[in-house]
Amino acid sequence: MMLPDWKLAVRMYHVGAKGVGNRDSLGCKVVPMRTVAIDPKVVPKGSVVYIPETVGLPVPGGGVHDGMWYASDTGGAIRGAMIDLFTGFGSYSMQPLMKKGLNLKTLSAHRIGEFKGCPPAWPNAKPTTPAPAPKP
């Protein structure tokens, strides 16, 4: 059993929310279901973070999440043991995670490496442009 490096309070964020753009704090394009925003005093920027609770979640272009996230973003509201998962474009991008019952109180996070450059996109991801919100 792997012990967590951190237990982090979790939130989700998306392009279109107040103050959220399509670039992370490294200047890279944010990648849905890959980019996380962190407090770099807690989780070093450039960390590859494994979050076991996200394994199996749906990802852009089909398929399921492997639990790997990239700490490339920060935010003014992220202080201490928090992590924000970037879900995509528009608030509707958060719905699949909420439907899967992701615990939105705390997640276990493990630093398993580091990356240089920008976080990778999903191999089968659709272009990262806003899609229309689904009709109710």
> What's the total count of β strands?
6
Low-confidence stretches: 126-136
For the record, what CATH class of the domain at 23-114 applies? Mainly Beta
Strand order of the largest sheet: 1-5-2-4-3-6
What's the overall average pLDDT, rounded?
83
Q: How much helicity do the residues have? A: under 10%
Helix tally? 1
Order of helices and strands: EEEEEHE
Assign an overall shape. Answer: globular
- CATH superfamily annotation of the domain at 23-114: RlpA-like domain
Query: In whole angstroms, how far apart are the ends?
Result: 42 Å
Describe this structure in words.
By secondary structure, the protein is mainly beta. The protein has a domain at 23-114: Barwin-like endoglucanases (Beta Barrel), CATH 2.40.40. The protein has one helix spanning 95-99; strands spanning 6-15, 35-38, 47-50, 68-73, 82-89, 106-114. The chain has a 6-stranded mixed β-barrel with strand order 1-5-2-4-3-6. The longest helix has 5 residues, at 95-99. The chain is globular. The model is unreliable at 126-136 (pLDDT under 50).
